[in-house]
Amino acid sequence: MSGYSGKFLEVNLNTGEISNYEYPTEWQKEYIGGRGFTTKYLFENLTPGTDPLGPDNILLFAIGPLSGLSLPSSSKMIVATKSPLTGGYGDGNLGTRASPQLKKAGYDGIIVKGKADKPVFLEIINDKAVLHGAEEIWGKGTYDTEKYLIDKYNRNAGFLSIGQAGENLVKYATVRSQEGRSGGRPGVGTVMGSKNLKAIVVIGDQELPIANPDIVRKMGSDGYKQVKKADFYDGWMRQGTTLILDWCQETSTLPTRNFQEGTFEGSKGVDAVKLHESMTERYGCPRCNMQCGIVIEDDKGRASELDYENIGMLGPNLGIDNLAKVGVLNYMADDYGLDTISLGSVLGMTAEASDKGAIDEKFSFNQYEKAIDMIDRIAFAKDDLGRLLGQGTRIMSETWGGDAINWAIQVKGLECSAYNAFTIPGMALSFGTSPIGAHHKDAWVIAWEISESNRDAYSPDKADKVIELQRIRGGMFESLVTCRFPWIELGYDLENYPEYLKNVTGSDHWSIDEVFNVSDRIYALIRAFWVREYIADGKTWDRTMDHPPVRWFNEVLKGDGPFAGKNLNRDEYDVLLNHYYDKRGWDHNGIPTKATFERLGLSDVASDLSKIVKIV
Ligand code: PTT
Ligand code: SF4
Fold first, then answer.
1. Is 422 helix (H, G, I), strand (E, B) or coil?
2. Which of 49, 72, 50 lies closest to 484, judged by CA?
3. Which atom of ligand 2 is nearest to 484's Cα?
4. I need a surface site. Which of 163, 191, 285, 481 has the fewest CB within 10 A?
5. For residue 95, how far is its CA from the centre of ligand 2 (angstroms)?
6. CATH code at position 172
7. Which atom of ligand 1 has the smallest separation from the CA of 241?
8. Could you give the CA distance from residue 349 to residue 298 in angstroms, rounded to a whole number?
9. 63 lies in the same domain as 143
10. Is the dihedral of CA 568, 570, 571, 577 positive or negative?
11. HSE value, Cβ hemisphere, 13 Å, CA-based, for 187
């Protein structure tokens, strides 16, 4: 089919062997690309029970049929693996020049297996790929690593790299690109580090065949114009995602002091107005005319790129009300290659534990200097506490015991992004059922839930809405591999995407419903992967895996505001969860039924899974 090269570059770091993997062409219709391909490949090729940090884990980079093309915000790439943080499927969607470059190099993705016996980086120039020693950059942060690679190649090449956190196997290390982008929250950078792979450079200059190039060119150029003409364009360019902070403060959903509260008295010090006043420049991904990365000068005079999540988790969640100081913590996370969301959650939990006398370490909220010290201890695995904090909040709660389970704001081991859904059932369901652990990316239902639905209700329409958004965001955008912001923020019509797909591939097969069918297939397969890996790793799988952080059931929201004193009701949540399962065709332990697997063309998966778990 046009729009695809039909192959992945496969690198075996045990042997140094580099080859092409030609995947079955049916995958293009069954899985589209990106997350679809990574899920399918991992399910089929990873031995169940593989140690995520052992050489047998598989690291994947995948683009899709639309990525890298000249259409709105298309330079994205899926990075995926079996997560060392969660033990299940883990991925991220990274904006990077490596996306168009990989397309032009003639690959739909990269498969990395094995472990190099010394640090290496991978160079891909069209169909030639070579491994080089990475001694000169091992131990460096991502800024210096990228600078080294830019000097060696050129600024237009695609770069992917890890920092010291990935090298030191901190379990929420990410893959970084372009001095501002970070992807793969559930430890995709950790797996890269475990393989001694410091970086990847991609350069390509071939054009892939597109079935109807004139139509795609015209649609893309109209698309850029529509994005720019959108009513909210100027507001977006002023404040990007950070407007959300003001909205979270108004709606009592701002994570404050480890999600204990939903409003922050110091929010004005880190809000969108403050950010706009402090903005020095803007970063973004290639092929995007609505660049969202807002750069400020941090307290140490360095350029630090901030999005809402970074500010929410490293500001209010740590009780810090100074944007330039938040900028320093964010810069450290970017340079070391640490996920800011998990980092903010880990530090918030540690401050709460220390305040409550559960640990000896003295660390409290609003202790910026001490937070700097803690980040260093985590990234470099300097001492026992630093190493424990590098495992994430789930392991921290198991280690500390007692009430600590309430302070771990995570689902399936992945920390919640910056929405305190203490009193928001639909958003709690979204975190609970996200396919990688608690991330808002698949179903950011909270805005609809607060503005258009009854906030307190556990009504079935909330489960329906979560599924609708998961189909669009978690299925469609993650398999086409383009940025979802043109649609969400500036109203670029969803119907454009199947049209692009038809004209890029030359197949009339595509409609929005067909794309959603693929989304459901991907979701069922990801779920099968989780269940298989949990059982193979000797862990229990049941419906509580889809519960939100237990704090939202066991405690009440503290602080000021009309929602203080409220929480989620476990029984009512369970009814909502059942509705979600029924609508998806999954049983009440969250496992797709035989009929669902069959409807999605996954009978073989059902029969594999039925050897280890009951499929109804
Ligand atoms: C994403 C997650 C997010 S989601 C943010 S801010 W956000 C945090 N950003 C981090 C960062 O920065 N540095 C760092 N060290 N850690 C960070 N952790 C957090 O990571 C991101 C944008 C954003 S900014 C969002 S919502 C949208 N996400 C998309 C998505 O998931 N899919 C898609 N098709 N389009 C999307 N568009 C938007 O992309 P992860 P990025 Mg990201 C500095 O990767 O793993 O999904 O984590 O990749 O290139 O930075 O784009 O308010
Ligand atoms: Fe990248 Fe932001 Fe543009 Fe999306 S909107 S492509 S994340 S710069």
1. coil
2. 72
3. 4
4. 285
5. 7
6. 3.60.9.10
7. 52
8. 24
9. yes
10. positive
11. 30
**Residues 6 or more apart whose Cβ sits within 8 Å of residue 471:** 516, 519, 520
The residue whose C-alpha atom lies closest to atom 6 belonging to ligand 2 is: 73
SS3 state at 421: coil
Q: Can you give the pTM of this predicted structure?
A: 0.98
For residue 178, give the nearest of 11, 90, 327, 292 by alpha carbon.
292
337-389 pLDDT, tens digit per residue, is 999 999 999 999 999 999 999 999 999 999 999 999 999 999 999 999 999 99
Same domain, 368 and 283: yes
Residue 45 and residue 169 share a domain: yes
CA 305, CA 59: separation in Å to the nearest integer?
Answer: 27
Q: Quick one: tokens of 60?
A: 């994947």
Q: Are residues 245 and 186 in the same domain?
A: no
Report the separation in Å between the CA atom of 493 and the middle of ligand 1, taken as the mean of its atom positions.
22
Asked if residue 432 belongs to a domain, the reply is no
Mind listing the pLDDT tens digit for each residue in 457-480?
Answer: 999 999 999 999 999 999 999 999
Cα dihedral sign, 247-251-255-256: positive
Q: How many residues are given for the chain?
A: 616
What whole-number distance in Å separates Cα of residue 4 and Cα of residue 66?
9
Which single residue is written with the structure tokens 């033990």? 87
* Cα distance between residue 95 and residue 417, in whole Å: 19
Where does a domain end: 371, 389, 419?
Answer: 419
Say how far apart CA 235 and CA 489 lie, in whole Å: 10
Spatial contact of 589 and 542, defined as CB atoms under 8 Å apart: yes
H-assigned helices in 506-554: 512-536, 551-554
Q: Alpha-carbon dihedral of residues 53, 55, 56, 59, nearest 10 degrees? A: 70
Number of domains in the chain: 2
Domain containing 271 — which CATH number?
Answer: 1.10.569.10
Cα distance between residue 309 and residue 327, in whole Å? 12
Tell me: do 42 and 172 sit in the same domain: yes
Q: Is the CB of 97 under 6 A from ligand 1?
A: no
Compute CA 141 distance to the chain's CA centroid, rounded to the nearest angstrom.
21
Helices (H), ranges, 270-383: 272-278, 308-314, 323-336, 340-355, 368-379
Q: Are residues 102 and 182 in the same domain?
A: yes
Q: Which residues form the pocket of ligand 2, taking CB atoms under 6 Å from any ligand atom?
A: 73, 95, 284-285, 288, 290-293, 483, 485
Residue 572 in 3-state DSSP?
Answer: helix
| Ligand 1 atom showing the smallest separation from residue 477 Cα | 34
Domain that holds residue 339: 233-419
Q: In which residue are the tokens 């720019």 written?
A: 228
- In terms of domains, do 274 and 350 share one? yes
Q: Is 297 exposed, middle or buried (0-12, 13-18, 19+ CB in 10 A)?
A: middle
Tell me the angle at which helices 425-433 and 460-469 cross, rounded to the nearest 10 degrees: 40
Alpha carbon distances (Å) from 222 to 219, 375, 498: 5, 45, 16
Q: Summarize pLDDT for 23-68 with one digit per residue, the tens.
A: 999 999 999 999 999 999 999 999 999 999 999 999 999 999 999 9
